[in-house]
Amino acid sequence: MLLQNKKVAIVGGGMSGLTLARLLQMQNIEVNVYERDVNRDVRVQGSTLDLHEGSGLEAMKRAGLTEEFYAHHRPVASKMRIVDGALNIKFDDHDHVKTITEDRPEIDRAPLRDILLNSLQPGTVVWDSHFVSMEEQNEGWILNFNNGSTAYADIVVAADGANSKIRPYLSDTKAIYSGITLIEGNIYDAKNNAPNLFEFTKGGKVMAFEREHFIGYGTKGDGSMMFVASFKAPEQWTVENGIDFRNKEQVYNWFKKEFDSWSEQWHEFFSGDEVNYILRPQYYFPLDQSWESRQNLTMIGDAAHRMPPFAGEGANVAMQDAFELAACLTGNQFSDLKTAISHFEKEMITRAAEATQESVENGEKMHSKLALEQMLGFFMQVKE
């Protein structure tokens, strides 16, 4: 086996990194995951995930975790309501026996991460390990973390997200701005802190379109609610807007101005105290990106193929990266590590390019003047 007597370091304890660690341990590979979170109890943010056949669900199957996944998935989370800016319901998945996304079961990020963490050997994840730099030593790497610790690995896998600090060791290709920026908001105890919008979801999702703007939100099993408000903006807006996103009043005033044609019912997202915001301009890597493969370093997930969230493919493609890389590294079809990694990277780039293109195109549709009509046409067609 190519990885016999070798140590693998995965930097980043997200879904792709943990999935890869699980799959490697199933083949008795020595692996550690270095995660910057202080411990596993740090609150997990982000939207509910819908896992797809052939990618996310296939990863859970190969990891032997399908039963655990279905024990924690949330069927009602797939139910969709499409509305306009006045919260007029144009399509209601709750009216249908079969959910449009029934073949893409939903699960919150926190329980999915717990499933993966619980599947790993004790001590696999090294918490409070915020990657700073690394340098080559012999045929491997010495990794340096901001807490002063170091670690050696024969192979390093970057799974450290869209702003990866390891990616520059492989590629200097820069991300492209999509033309769309979103504000992410997270509300805890949403039943009390945003009661009307919480009730409106009926446990599922809501997508709203009005005048080239979009709001999407949904509830989670822990009682919290995440929403995004997205819009077209020049790239420099993110640094020139003058808004302190830690200041709730400033964000609220911005929303009332930017989404001025939207119903005041949406203000519930911005008028409460129990909410925090994250500014997220949407970037993606070029579809034709490439880099020279190495025998001791590669990357997966957003680190390799950052993309907007408008096709629901990011986490699924990342989890597929994990099982495809594991197969290349632990199989017998390649003569050496560089050949195995090169094959994986070429296949990954092709798969990711297709998902990225779909995400970018969907983003344009969802922020067009005909967004509501186009989305209604899509969902009605799916139901037929």
Automatic annotation (TrEMBL):
Among InterPro entries, the record links this protein to:
FAD-bd, FAD/NAD-bd_sf, TetX_monooxygenase
The FAD-binding domain sits at 7-329
Would I find Cytoplasm among this entry's keywords?
Answer: yes
Keywords, in A-Z order: Cytoplasm, FAD, Flavoprotein, Monooxygenase, NADP, Nucleotide-binding, Oxidoreductase
One record GO biological process? response to antibiotic
Q: Where does NADPH bind?
A: 43
Q: Which GO terms describe its cellular component?
A: cytoplasm
Q: Where in the cell is it found?
A: Cytoplasm
Superkingdom, according to UniProt? Bacteria
Q: Which reaction does it catalyse?
A: a tetracycline + NADPH + O2 + H(+) = an 11a-hydroxytetracycline + NADP(+) + H2O
E.C. number(s) listed in UniProt:
1.14.13.-
Give the cofactors, semicolon-separated.
Answer: FAD
Chain positions recorded as FAD binding sites: 50, 109, 302
- UniProt enzyme class: oxidoreductase
Kindly give the Gene3D superfamilies that the UniProt entry links to this protein: FAD/NAD(P)-binding domain
Principal cellular location given in the protein's record: cytoplasm
Which Gene Ontology molecular function entries are recorded, alphabetically? FAD binding; monooxygenase activity
Question: Per the record, a Pfam family?
Answer: FAD_binding_3
- Where would you find the membrane-spanning parts of this chain? none
Q: What does this protein do?
A: An FAD-requiring monooxygenase active on some tetracycline antibiotic derivatives, which leads to their inactivation. Hydroxylates carbon 11a of tetracycline and some analogs.
Record family assignment = Belongs to the aromatic-ring hydroxylase family. TetX subfamily.
Q: How does it assemble?
A: Monomer.
The domain comment in this protein's record states: Consists of an N-terminal FAD-binding domain with a Rossman fold and a C-terminal substrate-binding domain.
Spell out the protein name for this chain.
Flavin-dependent monooxygenase
Query: Origin organism of this chain?
Result: Pedobacter nutrimenti
